[in-house]
Specification:
Elements lengths: L2 H13 L2 H8 L3 H15 L4 E2 L6 E2 L1 H29 L3 E7 L1 H18 L3 E7 L2 H9 L5 E6 L6 E15 L23 E2 L4 H9 L14 E2 L2 H10 L3 E5 H5 L3 H4 L2 E2 L7 E9 L5 H14 L17
Helix pairs in contact: 1-2, 1-4, 2-3, 5-11
């Protein structure tokens, strides 16, 4: 039994004629007749008395048709609820953001929300990529702002912007004197990194072609915060690598330690990731719009996708 069969039942009851009901339903008469016959076979009852003209429902058929009308009204109510969920810009939206994006993006997103979407209750929490993906798959989150690409059959990715990588070089390091940093000259033992739980670390390791763990450094420090790494680099030889949006927010003093990479077009993709079954599409579009308002248009060029560094 399916919704289409219930619709055919009601049409036949109203027109009391198979051909007219088929025209109304925009199907051929054989198709409609076959569907009704299958329903009768499934229920093991006769719903219509075909020997009468015009045809009439049987006693049990009248009860079935009455219940079909109730069921269709309930089904329409379900569709109405979904349509409202698709189109409303109010209510709660649970969003997670990874720390290496949250630090600079969340303050701007909150300001845009207050100014442009006062009825949207935006609940934002920081979390790591692996935890966020698990929450999305279990439908415990409405969406997440992550570094991509994220590929999973149950998740949909909406790329929003692409940011370059910059070197933040210590004044105590020989590379400080270079206007651009050659990625091939970066000493892995003098590269200060985030903890392994951060996807940015994996991208940096691929960027610098670090195959194995560092062996020769006498000091190994891994941080959960980009800002902590910057303070470490300020006072120790070496460098760290940070995304463009974080670099843009640095103080004028710290800007002196920023260096672009030489002949390197690498970027990281930042995207809204949602479960494919999430119905809050209007709010989803709203979140994307808020993020786009928070980053330079030059970073929203889809052509940059070809330079994305894998996670």
């Amino acid at each position: 039994m399916n919704i289409q069969q219930l619709e055919y039942l009601i049409a036949i009851d109203e027109y009391r004629h198979f051909a007219k009901a088929a025209d109304y339903c925009e199907v051929t008469q054989p198709t409609l007749s076959t569907m009704i016959q299958r329903l009768e076979d499934e229920l093991n009852v006769k719903i219509f008395n075909r020997s009468k003209h015009p045809i009439e429902p049987t006693d049990i058929g009248r009860q079935i048709i009455e219940q079909a009308r109730v069921s269709l009204k309930q089904f329409e109510q379900i569709k109405k609820i979904v349509r409202q969920e698709h189109t409303t810009l109010s209510g709660r939206y649970n969003l997670s953001v990874i720390p290496t994006i949250a630090a600079y993006l969340v303050p701007q997103m909150l300001a845009k929300r207050y100014n442009n979407y006062p009825d949207l209750e935006l609940i934002i929490k920081e979390n790591t990529t692996s935890n966020i993906i698990e929450l999305l798959l279990n439908e415990r989150l409405d969406g997440a702002i992550l570094a991509g690409p994220i590929e999973h059959e149950d998740l949909i990715s909406f790329p929003i912007y692409y940011e370059k990588f910059y070197a933040y070089v210590s004044p105590l390091d020989p590379l400080y004197g270079d206007k651009e940093v050659d990625i091939n000259k970066v000493d892995a033992d003098k590269l200060w990194l985030l903890e392994n739980v951060h996807c940015l670390r994996g991208q940096i390791e691929r960027l610098c072609k670090i195959r194995n763990s560092r062996q020769h450094s006498t000091i190994k420090f891994e941080s959960g915060s980009i800002d902590t790494l910057l303070h470490v680099v300020d006072m120790n030889p070496g460098l760290t690598i940070i995304p463009e949006m974080h670099a843009m927010g640095l103080s004028e003093e710290k800007q002196d330690s920023l260096r672009p990479f030489k002949n390197l077009n690498a970027v990281r993709e930042v995207a809204l990731i949602v479960n494919r079954h999430n119905a809050k599409t209007a709010i989803q579009d709203c979140i994307i719009d808020i993020v786009k308002q928070s980053v330079p248009k030059s970073m929203q060029n889809p052509a940059l996708k070809k330079y994305v560094v894998d996670l």
